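Postdoc handover notes: sequence design on the structure in folder B. Input tokens:
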């Protein structure tokens, strides 16, 4: 369902572009360097895992075990616009959620057996490190669009632990993504921003989409707030793991 959310955001934004009132003035040049620190609470509405993904493993919902949250989350973007048309963006987005609950039934996970009704510690880690190349394919007075490719390295872990027994599944891997980003300038100081890294196909998918309203304090500093969703996972022999996360985000950015 995460794909429908991303598609809905894109369609909604494109629909808004039609009746927009143009902002008077010259086309805005992108800053050379920009740092943006984002943070806020994160909730999970889906987090299912099965290790291994066959009859010897039990599918378990971490939402049922530790709840929906919220937990704290943050990320840092560093953008370098090489020239007017080409740019690079690096992202560091660590995420770890933990909690204690009980299992509804006995669970076989990563070669270990866990009993129902016993206190169970669960950990879900999904660190994301990315480098994106972006190309500015449209820049006008009221809206701007970038497209590109993102190289993502994920560092993931799911761990269950009870008294006397513990098991975990870790995964470090490379994921190529498509990148799209758009800005709709509502006024000289206000803008609506869409940012998407996503790709689906084969045994898995990955989607990270945000819609934020930004206020430019001056030529260097800006503040933003909005919603981010991260959804995806993999369905392979070794593991079944799919999660859907929702963020209420605020950020501060400085440009040079």
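Designed sequence:
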């Amino acid at each position: 369902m995460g794909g429908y959310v991303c598609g809905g955001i894109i369609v909604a934004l494109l629909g808004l572009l039609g009746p927009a009132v143009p902002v008077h003035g010259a086309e805005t040049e992108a800053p050379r360097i920009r740092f943006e620190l984002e943070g806020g609470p994160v909730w999970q509405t889906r987090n299912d895992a099965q290790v291994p993904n066959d009859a010897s493993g039990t599918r378990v919902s971490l939402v049922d075990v530790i709840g929906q949250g919220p937990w704290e989350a943050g990320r840092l973007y560093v953008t370098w616009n090489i020239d007017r048309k080409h740019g690079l963006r690096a992202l560091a987005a660590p995420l770890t959620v933990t909690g204690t609950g009980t299992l509804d039934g006995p669970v076989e996970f990563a070669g270990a057996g866990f009993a129902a009704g016993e206190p169970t510690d669960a950990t879900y880690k999904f660190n994301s490190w990315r480098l994106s190349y972006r190309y500015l394919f449209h820049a006008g007075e009221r809206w701007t669009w970038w497209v590109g490719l993102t190289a993502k390295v994920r560092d993931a872990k799911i761990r269950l632990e009870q008294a006397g027994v513990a098991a975990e599944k870790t995964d470090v891997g490379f994921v190529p993504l498509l990148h799209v980003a758009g800005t709709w300038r509502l006024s000289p100081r206000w803008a609506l921003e869409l940012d998407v890294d996503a790709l689906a196909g084969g045994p898995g998918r990955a989607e990270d989409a945000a819609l934020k309203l930004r206020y430019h304090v001056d030529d260097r500093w800006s503040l933003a707030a909005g919603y981010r969703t991260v959804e995806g996972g993999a369905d392979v022999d070794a593991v079944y793991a799919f999660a859907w996360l929702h963020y209420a985000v605020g950020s501060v950015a400085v440009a040079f």
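Context for whoever picks this up: The first helix runs from residue 2 to 17. Don't rerun without checking with the PI first.
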